[in-house]
Amino acid sequence: VINYWVPCLLISLLYQVSQIPQEWAHVDRVGPTEELELTFALKQQNVHLLEEKLRLVSDPDSVQYGKHLSLEEVASLVRPSDLTEKVVHRWLQSHGITNCLTIRTQDFLQCTMTAETAERLLPGSRFHRYMRDGHYLVRSSAPYSVPDDVHHHLDFVGGLHRLPPKGLDLSKKQKSKAGFHLGVTPAVLRTRYNLTSADVGSVQNNSQAVAQFLEQYYHPADLAEFMAMFGGAFQHRSEVDRVVGTQGGGKAGIEASLDVEYIMSTGANISTWVFTNPGRHESQEPFLQWMILLSNMTDLPWVHTISYGDDEDSLSAAYMTRINTEFMKAGVRGISLLFASGDSGAGCRHLGKENTFRPSFPASSPYVTTVGGTSFKNPYKVTYEVTDSISGGGFSNIFKMPDYQTTAVNSYLKTVAASLPPKSYFNTSGRAYPDMAALSDNYWVVINRVPVPWVSGTSASTPVVGGMLSLINDQRFMKGLPALGFLNPRLYKLNGKALFDVTEGCHYGCLDEQVQGQGFCAAPSWDPVTGWGTPNYPALLAVLLSD
Fold first, then answer.
1. Which residues contact 177 (CB under 8 A, 6 or more apart)?
2. What is the phi-psi region of residue 46: left when phi exceeds 0, alpha when psi lies from -120 to 50, beta otherwise?
3. Is the backbone of residue 525 left (phi > 0), alpha (psi -120 to 50) or beta?
4. Quick check: is 311 catalytic?
5. Which end of the chain is least crowded, N or C, by CB within 10 Å?
6. Residue 211: which residues within 8 A CB-CB, separation 6 or more?
7. Which helix (DSSP H) or strand (DSSP E) does residue 407 occupy?
8. Which residue of the set 316, 360, 396, 459 is catalytic?
9. DSSP, residue by residue, 45-86
10. Three-class SS of residue 457?
């Protein structure tokens, strides 16, 4: 029996969390009869064909452009082999685990079992309860293993190690201590990005969504108040059409309020959904639950904006690679996924005496559109934009640079070679991000019925870009064209056309002698701080309305 188990497969196969972060306080050891819910990610088939299909339906020069797949077609492409299903089911049943649910694509199993059974199933695991900010989670404090003949059929097991990261920093930063500051409102955004009062949604089959994972909730009363204050100049909706999941009680979260208020005021008059998933069990992972939902719902909004991320180095390559496949599954269906680039600039990882920049995931995924942040050059006027120093950006240490961006990124690296940080700080051949940007500084938000200024972060810029893409989808649907879907191949072929190029400013990096707190700097055309720049809506609409 000892030879049958492969010890500590976690390091190569599953999550790379070796210790519980300090902000999570240990509460107690989970009792043997307490129920857990674990998620088993079964190996998929034809992932290379899925990637090729995504390339073809997303490339405007391809004859298959816009010919998206249905969920059933995606399922028939990627569903696990009969052998994989048999091996995993037999393994679970041999431990008496029969309370399992699958999804339409059959590549995830969610099983309920006692903690005692889970620890027998996954030798090495030890389940404990932890608490942060009043929220409880159950996770294993130690690595685990799976049988040798099973691990070839699994990508990872969810619900054991990964803890939600802290939310993005939406600190109210007041740059001017005295005097009037403009602040960003829907009217300011519409002025800067050239949206008129007529630029609102009108078709029935269009929808957009935001997703929340960090115990964040919006209040319908806040949304209504926000629209009453700031939405008078354009047709809009004051209610979310659908909440998927359970809205928690208590105070509204600033993150959730920001996302909902700005996707609905930019993508105005478009049906909006909110995915909110605190998890039914303490052992669930909300981000993973959302990904599974996408693979289990035939009808979904066309644009999703997500303000959520984690350090690449805190996750295993196996986990991120599988999540990338989930992003591809959404993209081939015509769904646009937008992620905030993060609020830590280039980031910094301290490795002994050496520092390196610290990329964030999913911002570094080649299969999503990542949105960075900008500020007004003159905070008292609607002027041109410069870099917001918090804007996340850089180069993945895990994923290679996708073909759609090699020309743009290599041009940047060549043009600014003399002023780049030392090569030891970043991976010049990695997926570079962000792809584009929008204002991320000094937003007005209504939260708990009170208008609050000075809210900042790429959590603000992402729903703004998402709302504009929803408006473009609206116009495409009126012309009988398909949804934009995965935008990046088309975005990079525009070569900066229809965007305001941001060429001033740098973002944060490591605070050391080598780079002295500075990461990368903006430059003409694409750069790893603001991507291609910010949207000039009418021009972007025009170029994206051609089929």
1. none
2. left
3. left
4. no
5. N
6. 274, 275, 276, 277, 290, 304, 305, 306, 308
7. helix 406-415
8. 459
9. S-HHHHHHHHHHHH-TTSTTTT-PPPHHHHHHHHPPPHHHHH
10. coil
259 in catalytic set: yes
* Gap between the Cα atoms of 498 and 540, Å rounded: 5
d(CA 156, CA 161): 11
Spot the catalytic one: 107, 215, 255, 385.
Answer: 255
- List helix spans (H) across 241-298: 254-266, 286-294
Can you tell me the distance from the alpha carbon of 246 to that of 261, in angstroms, rounded to the nearest whole number? 19
What is the Cβ-side half-sphere exposure of residue 81, based on CA atoms within 13 angstroms? Answer: 10
Query: Given CA atoms 520, 525, 531, 537 in this order, what sign does their dihedral have?
Result: positive
| Annotation marks residue 255 as catalytic | yes
Indicate the pTM of the whole model. 0.93
541 Cβ contact partners less than 8 Å away, ≥ 6 residues apart: 471, 472, 475
What's the pLDDT at 308? 84
Note the pLDDT tens digit of each residue in 375-421: 999 988 899 999 999 999 999 999 999 999 999 999 999 999 999 99
Structure tokens given for 281: 């069990």
Q: What interhelical angle do 71-78 and 47-58 show, nearest 10?
A: 140
Backbone angles phi, psi at 40, to 5 degrees: -105, 115
Q: Give the torsion through C-alpha atoms of 211, 213, 214, 216, to 10 deg.
A: 40
Catalytic one among 215, 259, 474, 527?
259
Report the alpha-carbon distance of residue 426 to residue 510 in Å, rounded: 12
Segment among 35-39, 244-248, 345-349 with least mean pLDDT: 244-248
What is the torsional sign of CA 381, 385, 386, 387? positive
Work out the angle at residue 186's Cα, subtended by the Cα atoms of residues 185 and 188, and round it to the nearest 5 degrees: 65
Chain centroid offset of residue 261 CA = 18
Sorted by sequence, the CB contacts under 8 Å of residue 59 that are 6+ apart come out as 65, 489, 490
